[in-house]
Amino acid sequence: MTVIESAVGRYLAPTTLPEALQALRESGEVTILAGGTDLMVQASIGRRRIGATLMNIRRIDELARIARDGDAIRIGALATITQMMNDPLVRTHLPVLVEACDHFASDQIRNAGTIGGNVSNASPAGDTLVPLLVLDAEVELASAGDAGVARRSVPIADYFTGPGRTQRAPAELLTAVRIPLPPAGHYARFFKFGTRPALDISAISIGIAGVRANGALANVRVAFGAVAPTPVRARRTEQALEGQRLDEATIARTAEVARDEVHPIDDVRASAWYRKEMIHNMTRRMLDHAAQA
């Protein structure tokens, strides 16, 4: 592990997961650096302070792997947005995640930004978070235990506690996102609205997923971004849609439930009223598409 001491703090560059976890356990206030596409911007404008220790985890090769893991796909925290877009497993089994990645910033940012960073940043408008919610993803956390590496998993629906806040403890490192393989007949789509398709932060985003059968969706998942302090599962909207034939009446009723379920705020990107209307209109459009697919 590379260690550099200076008058302003300490820089660490571990090459193995145990090294990184031991440093987190012993070093007190540690800022974790991966792609840096969020951290460096936030630090430069004073929204985030770099801790006494800056730990660069980019040299931990095992955290960049994407692989089949039993009945799931495990995406290492250092997998970049570009890597996910091009990975055969992700493209075959998780096309809605690829769809979201295609709307993620610019090519340069996609080449550096990581899924672990996007999840850890915990933005209400994070582009990968809505598809991860509708895919029932879990976040894998690791820490240094007395008997080696200790791991725990948290459903991503429970992981976010507020803007920029998660359930990760200071001595833990997000190591992977694990996504169950979708069943046969699975349908999922993602929509993001902003001034520009990719380079802007979302004014709203929507994910809808379910298993198609007999003109209806079962095991429905609906998630919204940029309409609450965290990305959220829309439980009432899911209930309105579950098992119902995708006819005009169901679609109209579900879109109204979706609009009434969200309670966004006014900000520089959109008013609360506009966000609610966009949720209504785009939920309706996405369900129309699902009915015709």
Please give the share of residues in helix.
Answer: 25-40%
Shape: globular
CA distance, first residue to last residue: 52 Å
> What is the number of beta strands?
15
- Please outline the major beta sheet: 5 strands, antiparallel
The number of helical segments is 12
Derived structural class = alpha+beta
* Adjacency order of strands in the biggest sheet: 5-6-11-7-8
The run of helices and strands is: EEHEHEEEHHHHHHEEHEEEEEEEHHH
Tally of discrete structural domains: 3
Low-confidence stretches: none
Give the strand content.
25-35%
Q: If you average the pLDDT, what whole number results? A: 94
CATH architecture of the largest domain: 2-Layer Sandwich
| CATH fold call of the largest domain | Uridine Diphospho-n-acetylenolpyruvylglucosamine Reductase, domain 3
Give the class-level CATH name of the largest domain: Alpha Beta
Radius of gyration: 20 Å
